[in-house]
# Entry
Amino acid sequence: MATKVLERKPLSLAERSYLPQIVGGLKITMRNMLKPPVTLEYPDERPEIPVGYRGVPTLVRDPNGREKCVSCQLCEFVCPPKAIRITPGEIPEDAETAHVEKAPKEFEINMLRCIYCGLCQEVCPEEAIFLQDIYSVTGYTREEFAFKKEKLYELGGTLPDKHFKWDKKKAAEEHGNPHH
Amino acid sequence: MSEGEKDKRVPIYVDGQEVLVAPGTNLVEAAALAGKEVPHYCYHPKLSVVGNCRMCLIEMGTPGRDRATGEPLLNDDGSPKIMWVPRPVIGCATTASPGMHVRTDSPIVKECREGVMEFLLVNHPLDCPICDQAGECRLQEFATDYGRGYSRFIEEKNVKPKRTRIGPRVMLDDERCILCSRCIRFTEEFAEEPVLGFTDRGSYTTLTTFPGKELAHNYSLNTVDICPVGALTSTDFRFKMRVWFLKETDSIDTESSVGCNTVVGSREGKIHRITPRRNDLVNDTWMPDSGRALYKMTEGDDRVLNYAIDGKPCSPDEAFSLAATLLNNPDVAIVGSGRLSLEEQFLLTRIRARIPGPTPSYLVARTGQGDGKLLSADRNPNVRGALLTGLIEDLPAKELTPLGRLVNEGTVRTILVVGEDLSAAGLTRDQLKRVSVIYIGSHHNETSSLAKIEIPLLTVFEKAGTFVNQQFRVQKFAQAIPGPKGVLFGLSNFTRLLALLPGGETLAPGVSAAWEQMAREVPELEGWTFGGISSTGRVVSDARFAHLPFIETAGLHFEPKSAVAAEA
# Structure
């Protein structure tokens, strides 16, 4: 292979003294010293979570306190890392929400498996599962990371939506367009 | 189809493509032969045609003829002139005639389907998230394939009864019903116990049971299978698992010698339901309800899960070597089972051949009332397999009285029992205590509690193999779920025992290896292979057993040959 010999140019006086570079660097340092800090004193200070952030998946209730999930198991089906596991159950006939017929007996999300992709929220036909703003999940044992139904509802809270799909259904059963 | 019938086939043209169909074929089936789907709800190949869903509307025309002369009308290019019916016709109630032309994807047909779908969905509750049918629902499938894609309906939907229990095993949701009447026709035509009917008129039409009646007969769950929507659902399967999770495995119903073809739906080693599989030569598309609950035996608390000697768990090798020592005696008797697969029965005969002495072999008969349909009087699925392999020479009896006599005489001191309870078959506890019992079985019973050696056996869902049904049809079943932890797979129990007996013979524990041996040794199965048996089964010659008085009476696709059964 042919070798090409390059001629090294001699350094100028400014370059040899190194002073302009030091001054340039100090200028950046001074500018940032006077700016407000960009870091947070975590965990005493917490960041502001932007809208649409995909945090821990949670289950929500409707404003009447009814659990919205009907255990259709679509999230379990769509979940890429198979983190969700649902045991479907039947709502007893004497319950107030008996007309919904179906609710999860157990709902488990394994947070060691969850990849926070949000597909469960996207696929849910009942708008019952939401990735909310919780970003920090800690624990000492593997079991703690398998979030059960109670924990998921506790984290999820109430969704202030105004659909009342099932309430309308019940009202229709009682009043609307009945058989004679 | 014989040559003569083949000649009678008529040519029809589906979207211009020529297909030959048997005379009398309706256009839904004829289009299927041409690879075209004609969507339908009320039409079912095994039920009468009513034509009330209107989903299978297609365009149809026949070659024209001159009214005066009867001469065929021709186009300018000499091809026959097709006289198209000016309006669409329903495919299910139109039979093919020679030269008929059918259009299954013309603009009119598409519009018809959109219109029908729109009307069907007008009062549909859109329960899909809580509906068990979701995933195998014809409404869902056809709405995406042929529907409009959006709803124009803004009025209030009709309200009908939901969550109605119309029988011990069937739930009815009237809002989901599309009034196809398949279930009504099934209970009338096949089950011959009409209990379902429509009441009221128009959009208030409601499916219900006759007053004071309920859908309780032993074929009620077939209505759930044929319901194209989620109106009829099974109480046992209700809310258990979504159907898209189920792995489907072809299997055989073991409750009687009919051998209904089934599909076992399982997920992660747990069986959730059993449904019938179409076999026009055995069970059409039906099966009894009783056979659908059989999967529960895989989960019972009374499963044999350990290899054990004198009730103490041991390793398989210890159990087999002690069993081989006990069997290497001239005082052994074998009690097989009509519930074992053909391969297991065959390997039992191989084991018997290695045992010195006469080794009397028995089977225990299980009988019940045959219902003349898909439940026969012989409640063992594979007695004919035991006859074929030579495990037994004659039909089994309910009581093992001869064996009891041999035990009393002291000529039998060791009994190899496979899958049967000797106490239930008439042997007393005292008799069982006098002999060493080697029990190979899937469940605990009195015999296993008195057994010297206990060896766990896989159930029909946990192994592959074949059964020989009442028609002498060899039918395959596949393994649906893995066996319990620690239980050897496949035919291992039998091949390992065989290897330890004198003149030890080493066989692979798979089904194919057993079939290689069987093809050599069973004259009727010469040249057969396991892979060569089709999914509808293959009939084996019954000439050797024509003299035996089989107890089955006539049923669906079955006529008894034996004079004894015919009289009964």
Remarks:
- Residues 121 and 130 of chain A are 5 Å apart (CA to CA).
